[in-house]
Amino acid sequence: MPGCWPESDASRVGVWGWIGGGSMSLDAIVHGPDLYFSAIAVAPKANPLPHDTFCHERYMGLPGDRSTGECESSPLTHAQHLRGNLLLVHGTGDANGHYRVPEMLMNELLARNTPFTVMAYPNRPHRVPDGTPTLRHFHSTLTRHRHQHLPTGQRRMVPGPGEDEG
Fold first, then answer.
1. CA distances to 28, 39, 124, 134, 144 from 130, in Å
2. Which DSSP symbol is given to 131?
């Protein structure tokens, strides 16, 4: 990344997404721990197997017909690589991406004593915010995480060899 955007701070790269984007954000932080510092994954698919068949099998085929590649590349399989700040957001009433799937990831991270944050919305569906109070809380949670882990402002320039701080 150095050289691509000289005004950017490579130590403060974050990603976030919802549903498919949440899965991609989760993939990014476990597969690119040297690049991504923070991720927010809303209703992600952390494991390809126990997912709603209507959504998943339409694109991926039946579980017995698939290659083992999708399990091998799963964030659940690579949880040990997580080093950044992860916020998992999921509705416990999600019928498409069942809540037991992020729980698998949580258990794997807990077993490895890896820090992460979870916001579970009780009985909320796949799209999570289903009303004004929930929506307000949802956006506040995402904003708080972003400000805490990726603060805005001028990046701190570290002097090179032989350069002054001033």
1. 28, 23, 7, 6, 20
2. S
Sheet arrangement for strand 14-18: 14-18, 38-42, 85-91, 117-121
Q: How far is CA 39 from the centre of its chain?
A: 4
What is the chain's length? 166
Q: State residue 155 phi and psi, 5-degree precision.
A: -75, 150
DSSP 77: T
CB–CB of 79/112 below 8 Å?
yes
Beta-bridge mates of residue 16: 40
Tokens encoding 2: 């150095």
Mean pLDDT, residues 118-127 taken together:
92
Give the global pTM.
0.79
